[in-house]
Amino acid sequence: MSVNRQSRLKLRCCVALACVSLSAVFTNAWSDLLTYVQRPEPAYKWELREKINHPQGTVYDLHLVSQVWQDITWEHSLQVYQPKDTRPSSTLLLMNTGGNPDANDMTFGMEVAQKMKAPFAVLYNVPKQPLFGGKTEDALIAETFMKYLTTRDESWPLLFPMVKSVVKAMDALQSFSQQEWKKPIKGFVITGASKRGWTSWLTGATGDKRVKAIAPMVIDVLNIREQMRHQQETLGGFSEEIGDFTARGLPQLISSPLANDLLRLVDPYSYRDKLTGPKLLILGNNDPYWSTDALNIYWDGLKGDKWIVYTPNAGHNLQQQLDNGAPQLTRAVNGLAAFARSQRSGKRLPRLRWQHDDADGKLRLTIHAKPAPLAGRLWVARSPSKDFRKAKWVEQPATLKGNTVLGMMDPPTEGFVAFYGELEYETDGLRYYLSTQLRVAGKP
User: Fold this and answer.
1) Domain enclosing residue 172, as ranges
2) Are residues 304 and 371 in the same domain?
3) Is the pTM of this model over 0.85?
């Protein structure tokens, strides 16, 4: 046998073994997640506490006990917003969020439901907090990650009970819909923002057949190990917003083998073979938590139907800052409503294909869309470095011809430029926007 042939054979064997090893790691992670989610919960219960008359319709106020985790009972408010003259369907949009509901939440819930033309459910108190000496939010998650690294108990990462709270909310909503509407809900679109977007990813990864689609918001950190490296390259260090994690040394630990097991449990990217259902990613271009082009690190690895909604001049709260200084949630809310409508109706959102390249000394973005959009544009930002989190995004025209949108721009003479394409659509009176990946260009 020739040396070259032997080398090729060894290479093939190494690749095959690596694939088997990776498959085993991902399967074990999924098994651990599934084991926790499917564990019996004797404490689980729900009740309809009140029907609230709202100017726009009816708010059903439910109380849910989802589980007992680490000897701590998790209780939740679970509200369903049903506008007047809307009827339930077999698919329901379910958002998970923190805190307790108030009047502003009811107004928001009704707004989303009206744009969807269907009831909308929100699960509150995800996660149960404060815990462990008053810790909340990221500090609480970081604490549970450290507990896992110390004990190797797979139930410790807080994302697991957060996922289970969503699963038990689906159980409760199915029972509620049968009782109240005499029409059981069969499928759910799961959404949430930040760590609740993280929860949405992992809920989709459980393989629960009731989860028809997911719409995670502002959690632009899949493929965590690579994201931490990329933050150091583009931001000059880790984002200040993840200080609760850096204070515990977790991002620094990510590059070591010690973190492998933690990442396989909590990084949605490790479950990507399970995440094959439709997904809409809603992101803010000025989100201080993440590198501007963080999506590019994991987008190609995602399987199945997928779409992006970027919100220009918006941070972690997705509120776009208009030129007059007014905040606006329209891009995020309308995109979410359009996606939920598509899952209810079975009509897929428009298909987009795009390519970033260079032509005649210019930066070029070509987008093919089916059906054709009403309009197309570029959003462009400039920065002296690769950190665009405080940059202003400016609209720039693009050429629409048939089903193709073409955007061209000059490369920067100094510093860096970031840009992406946005296509505008309307369905049954709802105007919404879909985006492409963005490109960062500049001289090294």
Assistant:
1) 43-349
2) no
3) yes
pLDDT in tens, 167-212: 999 999 999 999 999 999 999 999 999 999 999 999 999 999 999 9
Cβ(188)–Cβ(91) below 8 Å = yes
Question: Based on the domain organization, do 383 and 240 belong to the same domain?
Answer: no
Pairwise CA distance, residues 405 & 369, whole Å: 8
Identity of the residue numbered 331:
R
Co-location of 365 and 330 in the same domain: no
One-letter amino acid for residue 278 of the chain: P
Per the structure, the count of domains in the chain is 2
Return d(Cα 66, Cα 40) in angstroms, integer: 11
Of the candidates 302, 328, 349, which is a domain's last residue?
A: 349
The structure tokens listed for 40 are: 């019996």
Domain at 394, CATH number: 2.60.40.10
Per-residue pLDDT reduced to its tens digit, 361-372: 999 999 999 999
The whole-angstrom separation of Cα 153 and Cα 196 is 22
- CA-to-CA distance for 178 and 317, rounded, in angstroms? 35
Terminal C-alpha separation, the chain: 46
User: Each residue of 112-129: pLDDT tens digit?
Assistant: 999 999 999 999 999 999
18 located within any domain: no
Q: What is the per-residue DSSP string for 241-302?
A: GGHHHHTTTHHHHTTSGGGHHHHHHH-GGGGTTT--S-EEEEEETT-TTS-TTGGGGTGGG-
